[in-house]
Each structure stands twice: as structure tokens, then as C-alpha cells.
């Protein structure tokens, strides 16, 4: 009996000393902010987009940068490059802005069947492109899987800077319709989208569109120029009047610009330690505002950081 009492007393004493330590451990340090985490990143964790895949779209009030994803939609990427180099998009317009959905640019004089006007012929570009809604899973491509699960796919993660969903059972993977992703408009026929009509997701992630449309890349910079436009009042957000349309001044590939005029940017690698830390910080945020960390994260709530590369002149100063 005496031994039991001695053991209980010793246990109580150890708990008394352990409780403050446990309480201190429970009060985890505040989560580092995105700028703080990025400040700790190393140069090898950033990549420069291939100039052949970097699209520069100039609007009257600013520039939009789009990175193509040829490893996922190679036929569409090739056709879009052909259209760009023929200056097909120069003089086209943003014709549709549907609230909480998409901003779309296209030939404003085209008809409802997707046919192009004589003012904007396709030239050497293909009128139809085989659907590239999914592609076979390629073990050679980088893959950063999220462990949080997903409603629309068996697996989700990031590959080459793009949000990707996978179905190991079918052996297929595809780009997801997250905010800022760019897809190809089409008619009912699966092969009617050729890249001459494009849209950017500007609202909630319409993941129901996954595997039903070709997604060709994402906007790296300039999303406010697309998401803040007046909403169209016509069906599906189309502009009723030509005066409402937003003219596209030019669309070029960075590879075709003089070196001094190319966008000097780099994107955080999604297979880097810093990106993993950013995801974890969003998943388990702790600071003065968040009293309960979510503990989970959705694929479309993760932004891949992009930053301007300082010029030599700016570095000297």
C-alpha cells in the first residue's frame, strides 16, 4: 500500500513538472508568412519559364503572362504557338466575362458555331485538334502529391508548377480548373477546340470541367486585369455590345521578343522545400487570427509564387 502511495506521489510530481512543458509545446510558434518563407528560399528553388512556353498578352491597361503546359497538352500548345506567330490574336478581344467563372477571349466576329471571320483566318493553324483532356501518367514528370485528399480525383498534387489530378486506376492525369488556369473553348464536339478561343478561370474552381476541356496552362501574372473586368450581361456573361469588349493589342511568345524585352521572372519550383513549407503553412496556419488550423488544404487554394528577377542595374543600386 505504501509503495502504491509513493508511486502515485511520484507520478503526480512528474505530471506537475510536465504540464507547463506540454502547455508551452501546445502554444506552437506562429506560422511564418509567405514573404518570410520566400525570403528563406534558395536560388536553386526557383526556375525560369521556357521562353517558348511564355505567352505575353498586352492589353491597353497592362500585361498578362501565361505559361503553357506542353507536357500535358502538347498539340494545343503547338497550335497556339502557330496562331501567336501568325499574329492571330492581335486585334481580337475579350468577349465574355462571367461572374465567378471565366474570362474568355476570341474572334469577336466569329459565329455561334465557332467559325472564324475572314478578318482572322487560322492560316497554318489547325481548325481542329484531338482532345487532350487527360494524358497517361508519366513517372518521368515531377510529382508533388498532396496528402489531403480530393473530391474530384483519387490523387492531386503539382507537376512542373501546375495543379494536377491523377487516377492511378485508369493511369491518367490532367490539369485542374483552378483559379488562374487557362483552358480552350470548344463546341459540343470534343475535337472542336483548337486554341483560338481561350478562357481563364476567374472565380471558384469549376472542377466539374476537368477532363471535359483541354487546359493549356496558367496565368503567372496579370490576373487582376482579367478578373476585375465588368461582367457581361448577355447569356453566359458574353458582352452584348461591341463597345463593351476589351481589345487585345498583341500576343507574343517571349522567345520571339528581343532578350532585353523578355519578361524577367522566375517561378518557385513545386518540388522544392520552400513550396512544401508554404503548403504546410496554409494547411496548419497558426497566428493571432487563426484559433483553429484547418489541418487540410484544397489543391485550388494553393498559389505558386512568381517573382521578378532583379536587373543588374537594380542590383547595383
If you had to describe this structure to a student in words, what would you say it looks like?
With 317 residues, this protein is α+β, with helices and mostly antiparallel strands. It has a domain at 50-129 and 176-265: Cyclophilin-like (Cyclophilin, Beta Barrel). The protein contains 6 helices and 16 strands. It has helices at residues 2-26, 34-39, 74-85, 223-227, 273-283, 312-316; strands at 46-47, 54-59, 62-68, 93-97, 102-106, 135-136, 144-145, 155-159, 162-167, 172-175, 181-184, 198-201, 215-221, 246-253, 265-268, 306-308. A hairpin with a 4-residue loop joins strand 9 and strand 10 (172-175). It is globular and about 60 Å long.
- What is the CATH architecture annotation of one domain? Beta Barrel
Approximate shape: globular
Report the β-strand fraction as a percent range.
Answer: 15-25%
Q: What is the CATH superfamily label of one domain?
A: Cyclophilin-like
Describe the structure in brief.
The chain is α+β, with helices and mostly antiparallel strands and 317 residues long. The chain has six helices and 16 strands. The chain has an eight-stranded antiparallel barrel with strand order 2-3-13-11-12-5-4-14.
Amino acid at each position: 500500500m505504501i509503495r502504491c502511495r509513493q508511486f502515485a506521489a511520484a507520478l503526480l510530481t512528474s505530471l506537475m513538472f510536465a504540464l507547463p512543458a506540454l502547455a508551452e509545446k501546445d502554444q506552437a510558434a506562429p506560422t511564418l508568412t509567405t514573404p518570410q518563407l520566400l525570403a528563406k528560399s534558395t536560388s536553386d528553388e526557383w526556375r525560369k519559364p521556357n521562353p517558348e512556353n511564355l505567352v505575353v498578352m498586352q492589353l491597353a491597361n497592362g500585361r498578362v503572362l501565361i505559361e503553357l503546359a506542353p507536357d500535358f497538352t502538347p498539340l494545343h500548345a503547338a497550335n497556339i504557338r502557330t496562331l501567336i506567330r501568325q499574329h492571330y490574336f492581335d486585334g481580337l478581344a475579350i468577349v465574355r466575362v462571367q461572374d465567378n467563372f471565366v474570362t474568355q477571349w476570341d474572334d469577336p466576329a466569329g459565329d455561334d458555331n465557332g467559325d472564324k471571320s475572314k478578318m482572322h483566318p487560322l492560316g497554318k493553324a489547325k481548325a481542329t485538334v484531338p482532345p487532350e483532356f487527360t494524358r497517361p501518367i508519366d513517372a518521368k514528370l515531377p510529382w508533388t502529391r498532396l496528402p489531403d485528399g480530393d473530391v474530384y480525383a483519387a490523387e492531386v498534387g503539382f507537376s512542373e508548377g501546375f495543379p494536377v489530378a491523377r487516377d492511378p486506376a485508369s493511369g491518367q492525369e490532367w490539369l485542374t480548373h483552378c483559379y488562374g488556369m487557362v483552358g480552350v473553348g470548344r463546341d459540343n464536339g470534343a475535337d472542336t477546340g483548337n486554341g483560338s478561343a481561350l478562357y481563364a478561370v476567374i472565380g471558384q474552381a469549376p472542377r466539374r470541367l476537368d477532363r471535359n476541356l483541354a487546359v493549356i496552362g496558367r496565368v503567372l501574372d496579370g490576373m487582376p486585369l482579367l478578373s476585375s473586368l465588368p461582367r457581361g450581361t448577355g447569356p453566359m456573361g458574353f458582352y452584348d455590345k461591341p463597345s463593351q469588349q476589351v481589345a487585345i493589342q498583341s500576343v507574343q511568345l517571349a522567345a520571339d521578343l528581343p532578350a532585353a524585352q523578355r519578361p524577367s521572372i522566375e517561378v518557385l519550383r513545386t518540388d522544392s522545400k520552400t513550396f512544401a513549407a508554404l503548403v504546410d503553412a496554409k494547411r496548419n496556419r497558426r497566428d493571432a487570427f487563426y484559433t483553429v488550423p484547418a489541418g487540410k488544404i484544397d489543391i485550388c487554394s494553393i498559389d505558386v509564387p512568381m517573382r521578378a528577377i532583379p536587373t543588374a542595374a537594380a542590383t547595383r543600386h
